[in-house]
């Protein structure tokens, strides 16, 4: 492949790819957990929760693809192995106490909030330290999506 020449040094592109790979792992883990909730949800609000979770996992699938493409656009390969995601993610899988919306939504809320914190910690460094203003803007938009989703999950749990 031809060398990437986009005004960002090789060292900075590597650092960006490393952080984006962690974001990709988190987003893929969240996708998997949302899909699990969609498949296994039960309770009196089954239909509404099932439909909402379908919307969320479809959005997550798009996010996973977009983050992987950001990694490729800066000249690196995106991790695609589950074992690599498990190494990179800071999310965890828990044994849940039930398959109802309260249980699933509480876990998903915790994950969205965890991702928000990680994204927020990376916004400034992408622009200021690594000279990647576009990536910084992308991460800001991604954080805003997670903030809105967290609000909706939180509202359901109130």
Report on the structure:
- This protein has a domain at 47-89 and 96-157: Ferritin (Up-down Bundle), CATH 1.20.1260.10.
- The mean pLDDT is 95.
- Helices cover 76% and strands 0% of the residues.
- Helix 1 packs antiparallel against helix 2.
- The protein has 158 residues and is mainly α.
Quick summary:
By secondary structure, this protein is mainly alpha-helical. The chain has helices at residues 10-40, 46-73, 82-88, 101-129, 133-157. Helix 1 packs antiparallel against helix 2 (46-73), helix 1 (10-40) crosses helix 3 (82-88) and helix 1 runs antiparallel to helix 4.
The major β-sheet equals: none
The fourth-level CATH homologous superfamily of the domain at 47-89 and 96-157 is: Ferritin, core subunit, four-helix bundle
| End-to-end separation | 52 Å
| Helix fraction bin | over 70%
Envelope shape = elongated
Oligomeric state of the chains present here: single chain
Radius of gyration: 17 Å
Number of helices: 5
String of helices and strands: HHHHH
* Percent of residues in β-strands: under 5%
Low-confidence stretches: none
The CATH architecture of the domain at 47-89 and 96-157 would be Up-down Bundle
How many β-strand stretches? 0
What is the fold named in CATH at topology level of the domain at 47-89 and 96-157? Ferritin
Mean pLDDT: 95
How are the secondary structure elements laid out?
Blueprint: H1 10-40, H2 46-73, H3 82-88, H4 101-129, H5 133-157
